[in-house]
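Example 9 (inverse folding). The structure is encoded as follows.
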């Protein structure tokens, strides 16, 4: 929570604008990260505040903390704000809950809702003590989505009075406020847990020391969902309305490995959220881990081939879900594949694999090459094939080759690159129902059938992508290959 959060609860704060009425008379909602009741972080955090919001009970505070230092923080219980506390009409609850579920469902199953870089900070001239953290990309995306989607249900913002005082007056802040009802806009989100507010003691050094000692184990955290909070009109305390889990959440540190659970990959529940991002979901601790890799492609044909080709590695392959692929602005396969893989790796905090590929036809000076997916601005495989045949009409040289570059990108910026090529000829007309793209026109050297007339396994054995993926398999057969350092800018 923030000092601004608490404005709505503070009778002693700046005067509330008349239009808001008394804040206690209004129903409010907020979306928070709230650790599960069983977690150590929740116990420590609730103890510091003296209030367990999930149980709706006060709890003993440590001897260095005083309840008068928690009057602003405590009404909320221990939580981290994803979307600020806004007033709403209670009739909106069904829509608000549906919107939160919809926003969470927009994330790719298993997306990494993580916090890292925890540090104790004193804000507002030492009056507010917080555990400040950095949000993972997926959490930032979720914050943005929620802020935008929930705006229609906001009747008043706790920041309205600040605006009236002349704060947030710059044009972009005004525009954002009108759009989202929140002057604390998307670019000023500062993920933190509030630990003391307002602190009026005389020993800040001791405060820092005590808080740092208690919070040190929680400098990295991950969550398997968010929590919808409500404060009913006339009440001062907040309560949990619903825990909303992320589909397929895994709550892993690097998001890269999943402990086998035997009997299937059930999604962990919110109760399995971890405080320590280095911990693993519950299960057999001696079970082998599976590497999880996001396949960053919008092409279903590629997904089938990649999954089939890498079956021997026993990696768990995940799709890109709702995340949009970046525009392919590169002029080489390597650039485009790296763009796709890096976008996925950074957004999802996972190792990601992408392929960029194309057909290079000798008589056309290497066309369509990296532009194969957009050749002649045609929008379907069939139309692109027809366009290629038109361009080749009357040409006797039908030689061509397929090229594939597969990039594996790690969330820390490390890249691996694998390339495969297959030479062959372009037919006068299509043959075969399998494969995708230009497969029905292409006969590899040494073959009589087109790639579209082959099974997946037959195509893999000789195709460009099959060869690039075989090189990747070879490099990973004994685990992750040694790194050549290639950093992302
Ligand atoms: P993503 O970028 O989402 O991975 P895409 O289809 O846009 O999918 P590319 O940008 O790499 O992929 O474009 C490659 C195009 O080249 C693809 O759309 C096909 O038209 C063609 N192509 C690549 N590999 C092929 C293959 O194995 N068989 C037939 N055509 C292929």
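The amino acid assigned to each position is listed next.
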């Amino acid at each position: 929570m923030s000092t601004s959060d608490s404005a709505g609860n503070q009778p002693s704060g700046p005067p509330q604008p008349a239009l808001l009425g008394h804040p206690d008379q209004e129903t409010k909602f907020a979306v928070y990260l709230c650790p599960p009741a069983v977690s150590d972080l929740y116990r420590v955090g609730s103890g510091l505040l003296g209030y367990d919001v999930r149980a709706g009970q006060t709890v003993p505070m440590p001897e260095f903390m005083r309840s008068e230092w928690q009057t602003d923080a405590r009404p909320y219980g221990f939580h981290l704000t994803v979307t600020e506390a806004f007033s709403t009409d209670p009739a909106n609850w069904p829509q608000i809950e549906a919107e939160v579920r919809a926003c969470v469902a927009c994330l790719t199953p298993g997306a990494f809702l993580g916090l890292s870089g925890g540090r104790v900070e004193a804000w507002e001239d030492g009056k507010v003590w917080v555990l400040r953290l950095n949000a993972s990309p997926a959490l930032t995306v979720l914050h943005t989505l929620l802020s935008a989607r929930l705006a229609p249900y906001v009747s008043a913002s706790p920041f309205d009075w600040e605006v009236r005082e002349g704060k947030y007056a710059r044009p972009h802040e005004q525009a954002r406020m009108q759009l989202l009802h929140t002057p604390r806009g998307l670019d000023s989100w500062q993920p933190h847990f509030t630990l003391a507010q307002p602190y009026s003691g005389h020993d800040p050094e001791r405060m820092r020391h005590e808080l740092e000692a208690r919070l040190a184990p929680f400098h990295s955290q991950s969550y398997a969902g968010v929590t919808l909070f409500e404060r009913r009109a006339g009440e001062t305390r907040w309560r949990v309305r619903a825990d909303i889990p992320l589909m397929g959440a895994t709550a892993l540190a690097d998001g890269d490995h999943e402990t086998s659970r035997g009997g299937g990959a059930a999604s962990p529940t919110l109760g399995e959220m971890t405080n320590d991002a280095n911990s693993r979901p519950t299960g057999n601790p001696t079970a082998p881990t599976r590497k999880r890799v996001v396949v960053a492609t919008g092409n279903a044909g590629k997904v089938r081939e990649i999954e089939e080709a890498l079956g021997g590695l026993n990696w768990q392959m995940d799709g890109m879900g709702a995340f949009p692929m970046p525009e392919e602005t590169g002029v080489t396969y390597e650039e485009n594949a790296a763009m796709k893989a890096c976008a996925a790796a950074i957004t999802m905090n996972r190792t990601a694999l992408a392929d960029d590929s194309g057909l290079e036809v000798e008589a056309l000076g290497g066309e369509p090459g990296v532009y194969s997916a957009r050749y002649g601005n045609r929008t379907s495989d069939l139309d692109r094939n027809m366009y290629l045949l038109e361009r080749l009409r009357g040409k006797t040289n039908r030689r061509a080759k397929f090229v594939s570059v597969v990039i594996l990108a790690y969330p820390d910026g490390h890249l691996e690159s694998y390339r495969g090529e297959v030479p062959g000829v372009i037919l006068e007309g299509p043959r075969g129902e399998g494969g995708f793209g230009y497969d029905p026109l292409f006969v590899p050297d040494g073959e009589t059938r087109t790639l579209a007339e082959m099974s997946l396994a037959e195509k893999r054995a000789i195709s460009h992508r099959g060869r690039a993926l075989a090189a990747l398999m070879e490099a990973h057969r004994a685990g992750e290959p040694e790194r050549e350092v290639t950093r992302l800018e």
